[in-house]
Design a protein that fits this description.
By secondary structure, the chain is α+β, with helices and mostly antiparallel strands. The chain is built from four helices and three strands.
Length: 124
């Protein structure tokens, strides 16, 4: 049913670029709902051609678990990341390039002219 609702939303809304689930704050301790380094986030946004400043509390899907229209994230796909761009994984909960990407997906879509929707699973 949840998949059907997401697909129906994409089919009926041509400018819907990304669908995320509600952020589950109990999944991490402490809850993560801010940028770890706002200046670094600003610099990252600029590198993607996004002039909008990142909001203090970004809208994002933990773990980058989302549905998206590929064109909506084309600004991110056009960025030529290399393996060396990413910090070594040591169970960080923020502050890495991977976290910048995770927290920017909605804004990349908005910059490409698409919107987003948070869809709650049925029965929640």
């Amino acid at each position: 049913d949840s998949v059907q609702r997401v697909l129906m939303a994409f089919n009926s809304e041509p400018y819907l670029g990304i669908v995320i689930h509600p952020f589950y704050t109990q999944s991490v301790t402490p809850p993560i709902n801010e940028w770890d380094d706002r200046a670094r986030a600003r610099q990252y946004f600029r590198s993607l051609g996004i002039s909008e400043l990142p909001p203090r509390h970004p809208v994002f899907s933990a773990g980058s678990m989302c549905w998206y229209r590929p064109k909506a994230l084309s600004g991110l796909f056009g960025k030529k990341f290399s393996y060396e761009d990413f910090e070594q994984e040591t169970n960080q909960v923020g502050g890495t390039v991977a976290h910048l990407i995770e927290r920017s997906l909605v804004y990349v879509a908005k910059n490409s002219g698409y919107g987003y929707r948070i869809i709650m699973p049925k029965g929640k």
